[in-house]
Amino acid sequence: xxxxxxxxxxxxxxxxxxxxxxxxxxxxxxxxxxxxxxxxxxxxxxxxxxxxxxxxxxxxxxxxxxxxxxxxxxxxxxxxxxxxxxxxxxxxxxxxxxxxxxxxxxxxxxxxxxxxxxxxxxxxxxxxxxxxxxxxxxx
Length: 139
Description:
Strand content: 5-15%
Shape: elongated
Number of helices: 7
Number of strands: 3
Largest sheet: 3 strands, antiparallel
Helix content: 55-70%
Distance between the termini: 71 Å
Oligomer: single chain
Strand order of the largest sheet: 1-2-3
């Protein structure tokens, strides 16, 4: 299919499930966000090369607000607010220019990371559980 031209009727008729799967895979790869945890934050690399830093240590109020958000729009606004508070207004403006799937992917990864950290902090990790059990038995 031509990149900048409207598809023909023949192209629509020739479109297969395999074509669909390839196109979806390619689109998902184009919106992929990478991250690393370093210092007191999570650093995200967006597909266009922009880097965003979000804090690992959220206040209870921020965590509750982030957890209670219902709509995608609310989630993106919260992400922009956190970015603006911790990385500055320019980072929040850059995020606004990204394709919509990029902030969604950042939010999903960020939520997973915070949940994992919460599990470790609450003694849910295997090493935390063992050390807590040992202390209880010796007390």
